[in-house]
Structures are given as structure tokens and as C-alpha cells.
Design a protein that fits this description.
The protein is α+β, with helices and mostly antiparallel strands. It contains 28 helices and 17 strands. The chain has a six-stranded antiparallel β-sheet with strand order 2-3-1-9-8-10. It has a six-stranded antiparallel β-sheet with strand order 4-5-6-7-11-12, covered by helices on one side. 48% of the residues are buried.
């Protein structure tokens, strides 16, 4: 992995400044290219072909094309073989040179052949044209700024902010953040900085910017029966893991107590001949230890089962207090997740041992692992009952008996967006308490409806899985994964988001994926059953809980009151009612009302604002 930067004018000092801002992404080498109408920069994390031949930006043989690239192309050897047959020459063993020649050969159509994780930019000197692209599923980041004929791009917002740019907040994004606890793309919290969407590329030429979509997950339906599909999932999964083990640097695994990372470990054990290094987190708690440390206990058992070299990190309230500012700085955009510090510190630990880790991101989104997918499917079936029957007293009784008090409204949701909104966002009543009326926009959901609900297909559960895949997965989960590992120049790969596996999963009927409300991912579990110890196979799914709610009442209490005071950031008084925020925090600390998902986003924003607006980082 690496960090890439660029802009549409010549300035050697400025491109080096952008490189400096994201130096953490590529500690092994750095370079830049400057010409009359272009500046490109690169920070390299060397993973394949560690020699100087992999230096970037890299020029084509005829010196007309220059590439800066971040990522790994898992099928690059197959593409290289085809290019060699066409007469292309190679001077390195890097996937960078393969991508460059593939673009020379086929232009933007080369992207259709790629299976990997990437963000890249290629400058065509002859045509004075800049081509910028992001991988199919948004695993690697790419942000850009476009205003007043100035075009800038970077792997991170920090790179953009090396320039004198308009830093106005996008208040629609702010409203979305407090509802979703992250900012759905292509928006960022900055009005004029955007994310290039997954599966898209852009072209900058003659001061004009055009954006094109090159990839959508094929909506093909498989004819495989369950047994055939299970076996195909197993083969494709194993092939994905094997592809992603290619590295010239030491490699390990983030091991949780869940099915996904344990299955990856099982598959790795079939290929890797040396002892595998695994890494997990444990929390320092003196109450409800079973709740907060189940993952670490199960990870230790799985480590013993597979005889790994296991590394366990203990995270304390002091660790959160001492590192949260750096975590938020590295996150760049707003994401409020109280497990972030644990991921950040675990990445720091892992980097001392390896340069690459595999992780289990994406399994729940492609194989229906979350309980909400079961409920979406059930609601979809119940909605076939005439509305007059769903609206009667019997429907209310049914909802109460299912121990879901909000089911009556969900069962009678107006459409798929209304149902999604009920399941996925924070309560408007709570948001209205702390966000001032002139800032609060209760109609902001229309942005999400227009961006993500216009081209869905399949049953209700499959439709809303697609929305999660395009929003939550990209802009919360994968953003967190990328920023907090790359903060230490650690590359994380995600075998469950291999292109072939994602496309296979999308083709399978929802009935193959759903189990019950406690156990989803049915077909995946069956496919990897022999990789899973008995204690994991029948284990109900649980989330990864941090004790942040409890720590706010103890070790983080004084810190929370400090950050959530009206004099911490003078400017944010215009956004928030700090009297109400103090009440919300008081209620949480006194246990009158659980408010972690209200307090943590405000706390995150306050620190973010001081870092990126007040201090101008």
C-alpha cells in the first residue's frame, strides 16, 4: 500500500508538502513528478518487488505516461502474461508496471480486468489528460477537490489540506454524520472535497472534470443448488485467500472471535507452511468481562487450535484518552466508532511484526451476517399481507410478542428507504436535543434516497444489503480499516471482498444466506465448516463491544466533560446546544439513560473540529 497525491499545475514544493502530510502511508520510499500542467506524488509501502525498480511515480517506456498508484492487483500476473504476448516489455516485477501497460493497451477498459484493491492516477503527457480511478468496492481511498479550475487529489483529506483550499463545512454531511455516525460518500464533511465513488474513474482535461462508472456488481442469478453453491463458495474463498497471501514482506492476521477471520486462518493454514502470526484486542474491564472480552477469549482458543504465534493487546481507558486525538486525525473524515482506538493500537502492535495483515471485513455484508437482514426478509414477507390487516390490533400484538416494540412501524414502512431509515439512523428526537434548529435538517435523508435507492434489484433483504455494501461498508468499516492500519504503514487485505467472491455471493438467493436472527451467513458457514472449531460453528453472532459506555462514567468522564464544554471550540457554539449536551452526558453517567451513540459522535466532532478547523492541520 501507498499514498498518492497530485494536482493540475506545476509546483515541486507543494507536491512534496502533500507527500509529507501522508508520509505514514508509505514509509519505504517517496517520489514526485512535475511537468508543466501536472504534479504527481507518491509515498511507497514496499510489498512486492522491494527493489528500486518499483519507485513511483513510474514512467512508461516511451516516457509519455506516468503513474502513481496505491494498492495490490491480485491477478496482475495473468494480465502481465497477456500483455507480454502482445509485445509489451517489463523492467520490474511490480503490479504497478502491469497496470500502466494495461492502461496504455486498453485505456479505461483495463479496469474491467482488475481484481484487487487500488486507487491510481495516470498522466498522459501527449494528450494532456489525467486519469484517476478507484477499485470496484472502495477498499482503497481517493478524495479530490475541484474548484476555480483547480483540481487536487489524494489518498487522504490531509493531502488536500496541504493546499490553500476552501474549508467550508458541508452541513448536509454534518446532518448525515449525526444520523449514521459516518459521512456517506461521495460527500465528505468538507463542502468542496469529495470521495471518488467505488467502481468509478474520472478524467481531467482542458479544465473539465468528467466522472464515469465502470463497474457494478452483476445482477446475475445462479442456477446452482445449495450443495453446488456451497462448494463453489468454498473454492472461491480459498482461491481468494491464496491470492492475497502473495507478499515479499512478513504477513499476519487480525484474529477476532468470529467466523470470518477464523475461516481465513483455516484457509491460510492450508497454504502457509510457517507459524502464522495473529493479533487481537482485549479490554481492561472489571465488570461484564464476558461481554467485552468474548472476542479475545475465542481468538485465543482459535490461536491455540491453529498453533499460531498469538499477540494480544490490552487496551485501557488511558490508552483511549491518550490516543483518541491521533485516531481522529488519522481518520480524516468524521467516523464515530468507539472501537477505533483499539484498531489503531492493534495496528501499531502488528506493524512491529509484519507489513501485511489479512482481515475479515465484508463477510457480513455479502453473506447476510447481521440480524437486520433476517428481519428485512421477514418484514418483506409480512408486507405481502394486505395493509388493512397489518394495521390492525393483531399486528401490534405480533410485534410485541416478537419483542420488537418498533416493529409495528417497520412492518408498515412506506417503502424500502423508509424501512432502511428506521433501522439504520439515530433517533430524530435525540438529535433535535443537541443540534440547533438552524443546523438540523430532518429532510437530509432525501440525499441518501436519491444516491442509493434508484437502482436496486431483488428481494427486500437483498436490496438493503446492497445499500449497506455501498454506504456503511465503504464509508465506515473500510474507511476505518484503511486509515488506522495505514497510520503505521500496515497493509490490510480483505479476502472476503475479493471480486470473484463478491460476485458469486451476489448471485446466490437470499435463502442460502439467511439462517435465523442469531445466526446468518448460513451458506458461508457450511462452506468453511471444517475450518471452524466446534465452539464457533453454532455460536450466535455478537458485535464487537468496547466498554466505552462504562469508561465514560469512570476513566473518560473528566475528559468527556472537558471536550463537550462550550469553551472547547468557540465556533461550535453555533451548531450545538451545550446545555442539552451536558444533560445528555449527565444522564449517561448517572445511568438514567444510555447515550453512548449520542455522546461519542459529538465528542468525536469536537476533537475533529479542533484538529482540522481551529488548528488548520
Amino acid at each position: 500500500m501507498c499514498g498518492i497525491n497530485g494536482f493540475n499545475f506545476s509546483d515541486e514544493k507543494l507536491i512534496q508538502s502533500m507527500n509529507d502530510k501522508i508520509r505514514h502511508r508509505g514509509p519505504d520510499d517517496r517520489g514526485y513528478f512535475v511537468d508543466q500542467h501536472i504534479s504527481l506524488g507518491h509515498n511507497r509501502l514496499s510489498i512486492i518487488d522491494l527493489s528500486k525498480r518499483g519507485h513511483q511515480p513510474m514512467m512508461s517506456h516511451d516516457k509519455n505516461y506516468i503513474i502513481t498508484y496505491n494498492g495490490e492487483l491480485y491477478n496482475y500476473l495473468a494480465i502481465k502474461k497477456d500483455l507480454v504476448a502482445k509485445g509489451y516489455k517489463f523492467q520490474s516485477d511490480t503490479d504497478t508496471e502491469v497496470i500502466l501497460n494495461a492502461y496504455i493497451d486498453a485505456g479505461a477498459d483495463c479496469l474491467k480486468k482488475f481484481n484487487g484493491i487500488f486507487a491510481l492516477a495516470i498522466w498522459d503527457k501527449k494528450n494532456q489528460e489525467l486519469f484517476v480511478a478507484r477499485d470496484q468496492f472502495g477498499i482503497k481511498p481517493l478524495v479530490y477537490y475541484h474548484k476555480d479550475n483547480k483540481f487536487l487529489f489524494s489518498s487522504e483529506i490531509k493531502g488536500i489540506l496541504a493546499h490553500e483550499v476552501d474549508k467550508d463545512l458541508d452541513f448536509d454531511s454534518l446532518n448525515l454524520y449525526f444520523r449514521f455516525l459516518y459521512v456517506p460518500g461521495p460527500q465528505t464533511i468538507f463542502k468542496h472535497i469529495k470521495k471518488l465513488a467505488p467502481g468509478h474513474y474520472l478524467i481531467w482535461k482542458n479544465n473539465n472534470l468528467t466522472i464515469w462508472r465502470y463497474y457494478e456488481i452483476p445482477q446475475l442469478k445462479s442456477n446452482l443448488n445449495f450443495i453446488e453453491a456451497r462448494d463453489q463458495v468454498r473454492r472461491t474463498f480459498d482461491e481468494s485467500v491464496k491470492r492475497q497471501l502473495v507478499s515479499d514482506r512478513p504477513l499476519g492476521l487480525f484474529l477476532s472471535g468470529g467466523i470470518d477471520s477464523t475461516a481465513i486462518l483455516g484457509s491460510m493454514s492450508q497454504v502457509v507452511k510457517h507459524q502464522i502470526k495473529t493479533f487481537t484486542v482485549k479490554f481492561d474491564v472489571d465488570v461484564e468481562e464476558d461481554k467485552f472480552n468474548t472476542d479475545s477469549y475465542l481468538a485465543k482458543r482459535s490461536s491455540d487450535y491453529y498453533h499460531t504465534e498469538h499477540h494480544e493487546l490490552l487496551v485501557t481507558p488511558s490508552d483511549v484518552r491518550n490516543n483518541l486525538e491521533q485516531v481522529i486525525y488519522h481518520m480524516d473524515d468524521l467516523v464515530a466508532n468507539h472501537t477505533q482506538t483499539a484498531t489503531y493500537l492493534l495496528s501499531q502492535l502488528a506493524k512491529q511484526e509484519v507489513a501485511v495483515v489479512l482481515g475479515g471485513d465484508g463477510g457480513d455484508e455479502i453473506f447476510a451476517g447481521y440480524d437486520r437482514y433476517y428481519y428485512y426478509h421477514l418484514i418483506g414477507r409480512l408486507q405481502k399481507i394486505p395493509r388493512i390487516l397489518r394495521n390492525n390490533f393483531l399486528a401490534k400484538v405480533l410485534a410485541e410478542n416478537l419483542h420488537k416494540n418498533s416493529w409495528y412501524n417497520k412492518l408498515n414502512a412506506r417503502d424500502n428507504f423508509d424501512l432502511f431509515w428506521q433501522f439504520r439512523v439515530q433517533k430524530e428526537k435525540t438529535i433535535s436535543r443537541f443540534l440547533k434548529p438552524e443546523i438540523n435538517n430532518q429532510g437530509v435523508g432525501q440525499i441518501i434516497r436519491e444516491q442509493y435507492f434508484g437502482n436496486l434489484s431483488g428481494d427486500l433483504a437483498s436490496q438493503l444489503m446492497q445499500v449497506d455494501f455501498n454506504t456503511w461498508l465503504v464509508d465506515e468499516s473500510l474507511t476505518k480499516t484503511d486509515r488506522l492500519t495505514m497510520a503505521f504503514g500496515l497493509e490490510e487485505r480483505v479476502p472476503l471482498l475479493d471480486r470473484e467472491l463478491v460476485e458469486l455471493a451476489a448471485s446466490l438467493p437470499i435463502k442460502y444466506k439467511l439462517g435465523n436472527s442469531e445466526q446468518g451467513k448460513h451458506i458461508f458457514k457450511e462452506a468453511v465448516k471444517d475450518y471452524l472449531p466446534d465452539y464457533l460453528y453454532d455460536k450466535p453472532k455478537t458485535g464487537w463491544f468496547s466498554p466505552a459506555a462504562k469508561w465514560l462514567r469512570t476513566g473518560l468522564k473528566d475528559f468527556a466533560y472537558e471536550v463537550l464544554s462550550d469553551d472547547y471550540n468557540i465556533d461550535t457554539k453555533d451548531y450545538f446546544d451545550f446545555v442539552e449536551i451536558r444533560k445528555i452526558l449527565d444522564e449517561h453517567i448517572s445511568r438514567r439513560h444510555y447515550a453512548l451513540n449520542t455522546v461519542w459522535p459529538i465528542l468525536t466532532f469536537q476533537i475533529w473540529y479542533k484538529l482540522f478547523k481551529s488548528n488548520g492541520k
